[in-house]
Amino acid sequence: MSDGRKLGILVLHGPNLNLLGTREVAVYGHTRLEEINRALEARAEAHGVRMEIVQSNHEGELIDAIHRARDWAHGIIINPAAYTHTSVALRDALAAVGLPAVEVHLSNVHAREPFRHRSLTAPVVWGQIVGFGPLGYLLALDALVDRLTKHAT
Ligand code: CA2
Questions:
Q1: What is the mean pLDDT of residues 34-63?
Q2: What is the CATH number of the domain that holds 123?
Q3: 138 in any annotated domain
């Protein structure tokens, strides 16, 4: 894992999040994914963290990115989007690599339809941040950096 100096954090955005800011703005807001990514990159740089960001609409690509993270990352920030509620495969991948992960949801999934209340990934992540919009990603990054700088990696 890693080059032994810089902390590495993988950010994963699941299906349809590439549409952020262009559709369903009443639910997900006006911020585009690119803006979220730029804010994350700026915060990562301030922390001295290496960050890689992947958005995919394909379950297998998200799983491949999680597997690759074993070789360089110390933690994962993931918004699995709809796969949160359906994907045993994504859950198994997160459990298999065993890296501390934070699950982020822009909306408060618990205030929405019942099918969004269940997360298959929640039991295998370190924690969840829901309902804070784009800020949730930055909170997740700060939490991971705090944990990873306090614990031996
Ligand atoms: O609140 C979240 O972040 C979600 O992960 C977003 C997912 C949804 O399936 C989860 O239940 C909660 C949906 C992401 C789709 O994003 C869109 C953005 C703009 C237009 C259409 C979809």
A1: 98
A2: 3.40.50.9100
A3: yes
Is 2 contained in some domain?
no
State the CB neighbour count (10 A cutoff) for residue 33.
18
Q: How close is the Cα of 94 to the center of ligand 1, in Å?
A: 20
Q: Which is catalytic among the residues 28, 47, 83, 137? A: 28
- Both tokens of 125, joined, read 């992540």
Cβ-Cβ contacts under 8 Å for 124 (sequence gap 6 or more): 91, 94, 95, 101
The total number of structural domains in the chain stands at 1
Provide the domain limits for residue 104. 8-152
- Residue 61 covered by a domain: yes
pTM over 0.85: yes
* pLDDT tens profile 73-98: 999 999 999 999 999 999 999 999 99
